[in-house]
Amino acid sequence: MPKIKGSCLCGEVTYYSTAEEPTMTAVCHCPDCQKQSGSAFSTNVLVPISSVVFEGDCRKQYVVKGASGEDVTRNFCGNCGSPLTTELPAFNDLAAVKAGTMVDSSWVKPDIQIWCDNTKPWSKIDEDIKSAGANPG
């Protein structure tokens, strides 16, 4: 059974990754992650794009210039709107799986946080997580 698997809120779209372990886990404070999550940051489990398998007919995607200025592809459920992954070709073709959509995310411990200049003062996370400095990309 895959370690990295999950679904949208309504269950119409499921996914799994054939990667046994993530390349890294990251908390991102960029403006785009704040908007797509509806919160102060997004917690992401990064795996190769080619390892992600989606099932279900409701998956939608769109490509947009990310906060870094690079193209990103956002996969989401067209029925309930849940964000599922963000494909980041500029980051060595990694997909950022949204940890909150995983069946079991209890093991997720972020390695790094990025876009820390955008951290909201009302939202604090573990200060032991390494900060990547200003805005990468």
Provide an overview of this structure.
The chain has 137 residues and is mainly beta. It has a single domain, classed as Beta Complex (Metal Binding Protein, Guanine Nucleotide Exchange Factor, Chain A), CATH 2.170.150.70. The protein contains one helix and eleven strands. The strands form two sheets. An eight-stranded mixed beta sheet has the order 6-7-8-9-4-3-10-11. A three-stranded antiparallel beta sheet has the order 1-2-5, with no helix packed on it. A hairpin with a 5-residue loop joins strand 8 and strand 9. The longest helix is centred in the N-terminal third of the chain and has 7 residues, at 31-37. The mean pLDDT is 87. This is CENP-V/GFA domain-containing protein. InterPro entries: CENP-V/GFA, Mss4-like_sf. Belongs to the Gfa family. Pfam families: GFA.
